[in-house]
Write a structure and sequence with these properties.
This protein is an alpha/beta fold. It is about 30% helix and about 15% strand. The protein has twelve helices and 15 strands.
């Protein structure tokens, strides 16, 4: 049975308190032996889309960098380019956003280096022999790092029900080409009666697949199934069959996560901030209200167990599942079940309060 460590804290705590809690959590989880002297380990995180404020606090990342560096390793912060239109769809803009959101070298103590190169195309193909994918494409910098710490922000998510460690591994560590493959086959539809022809979906569409006249129309030949139109529509006019598409998306994400985990046996640690848990992930560029009160920071060596712990703790705290308060048609446990099948971890765990 895997262990998951919980350190209660709040997003509103001071930087000093968050650093103290983070370092105590690190010690209790015993992460020192994951890293070795002369390692160039990745600290995988999400620096937040411009416009959002609920991303993981830089003070937590800075504390983790200090802990990693104390082992003799030289860590770097990293993430990969997004598919949608954003300053984060290339390495230069992504690094600028990281700096603006407090993840600069001076504040955190490590450089931000996008793992997939200048335009999101630097990748390494890995065989996984999964249900949907035989081979997957992972960001080169992720694969070259000998060890890794995955710092995730627990949120709801339009396609997976919950975004946590598995999504951060699978989608967050993939090249642009791999992200497209993960979304393959998902086709949203517009409800003409609900559409107000505001044009927001067309503005956010990364593949120019939407035209707006009396109502929005999606060109299936251009659509990449990324779901941005679902996330940004304020009128509930974009419809999607989550029962089918959501299951395959979650399983494809997990199969990409498997490529990362299998190449670094016993060399990955997971820290999840279950604070400021919002309906949508940090890719949505607007301020969001939390769905429930803060839980704290969690740590584990098992990505399946830490995601399962977040789901249960959220249910206990809010009295409802994270999916029911974000996207009720989704089922976040699909990714956990497939993670078990792929050998990434187990849903049974022991919770240890720090």
């Amino acid at each position: 049975m895997s262990r998951v460590y919980l350190a209660p804290c709040r997003a509103s705590d001071s930087d000093q308190e968050l650093a103290r809690v983070t370092e105590a959590l690190w010690r209790r989880a015993g992460f020192d032996d994951i890293f070795e002297a002369r390692d160039l380990p990745a600290l995988k995180l999400h620096v937040g889309e411009p416009g959002t404020k609920t991303f993981v606090r830089p003070a937590i990342a800075a504390a983790l960098v200090r802990c990693m560096a104390a082992t003799g390793a030289s860590p770097f912060l990293t993430d990969t380019a997004v598919l949608y239109r954003s300053r984060r769809d290339n390495a230069v803009g992504h690094a600028q956003v990281a700096q603006e959101h407090g993840f600069g070298f001076e504040a955190v103590g490590a450089p931000f280096i996008p793992a997939d190169g200048l335009n999101g195309a630097e990748e390494i193909d890995v065989t996984v022999d999964g249900k949907h994918c035989q081979r997957v494409s992972i960001a080169m910098g992720i694969m070259q790092a000998r060890s890794m710490l995955v710092l995730s922000h627990a949120t709801g998510h339009l396609g997976t029900g919950m975004g946590g460690a598995l999504k951060n591994l699978g989608m967050g560590c993939s090249s642009k080409r791999a992200k497209l493959r993960q979304h393959h086959g998902q086709q949203p539809r517009i409800d003409a009666d609900s559409c107000t022809a505001c044009g927001t979906c067309a503005d956010w569409c990364p593949s120019d697949a939407i035209e707006v006249d009396d109502y929005a129309v999606i060109d299936d030949q251009k659509c990449i199934g990324c779901g941005e139109c679902v996330a940004v529509c304020r009128d509930d006019a974009v419809r999607f069959d989550w029962a089918v598409g959501g299951r395959e998306l979650q399983e494809r994400i997990v199969e990409h996560a498997a490529a990362v985990v299998r190449r670094k046996p016993k060399r990955i640690g997971y820290v999840t901030a279950a604070m400021a848990i919002t309906k949508d992930c940090d890719c949505l560029g607007r301020d969001q209200e939390p769905l429930c009160e803060d839980i704290g920071l969690l740590a584990s060596r098992d990505p399946v167990a830490i995601d399962q712990a977040v789901l249960r703790l959220f249910q206990e705290r809010a009295g409802q599942s994270i999916e029911s308060l974000s996207y009720p048609k989704t089922d976040a446990t699909i990714q956990l079940a497939h993670g078990e099948r792929m050998g990434l971890g187990q849903r049974d765990y022991e919770l240890v309060v720090v």
